[in-house]
Amino acid sequence: MLAAARKEMLLERLHRDGRLVAKEVAAELGLSEDSIRRDLRELDAAGLAVRVYGGALPASPAVVDYGRRAAVSPASKERVARAAAALIEPGATVILDGGTTTLAVVAALPLDRPCTVITHSPTIAAALLDHAADVFLIGGQLFKHSAVACGAAAMEAAQRISADLFLLGVTGVHPTTGLTTGDPDEAAMKRALAARAAETFVLASEEKLGAASRFGVLTLDEVAGVVTDVPVDDPTVRALADAGVRIVAAD
Question: Is the whole model's pTM more than 0.85, yes or no?
Fold first, then answer.
């Protein structure tokens, strides 16, 4: 089998099964594990897969830059956003992560909903200008890829807040690897914010479910639930539920 055809087969298997084990694929094809690992390295370098110990996982399409991210699964994000906005009770203090799904949450939030919003995203803060919510913006070095503040100043500011709820955006939600994103500093900031909230819910539009990125954010048992519009009979959703994750279904 030619290398190009082999990689195409590996990608098809990744999307079908949600995971590849190099040893198993090599035995099935009658090839060396080194050949399969080399293919997986090249797929990883092309952004088509994420190498993990023993194999690979599907790469998330949500790691593109902020300007292009709005075009990825917009209808799914809107459904997830409506369900997530319903979790924000009147009078609550909520931390909103950055990202296009969270921006959709702001659009779904009633203008007259009395609450307090803390965010490290200037785009989220600006979108709340016409809302009744009180808004507190965490400052720091702007990470332009996701339009959020990160770095030492932002981390220090995060230690001084507390909230009832954190709506967390990630680029990958996988039953095995948990919650992941594409940048280590952004992952650290997300962990810091999650530590300051009583409950954390993950915003999981369709392109993020079953996918993975390079840097871990939290394990599945560190969050209160996953908000997704992917049907409950989907294999990844079933695997999450079997792992004890609360699924908040978005219509």
Answer: no
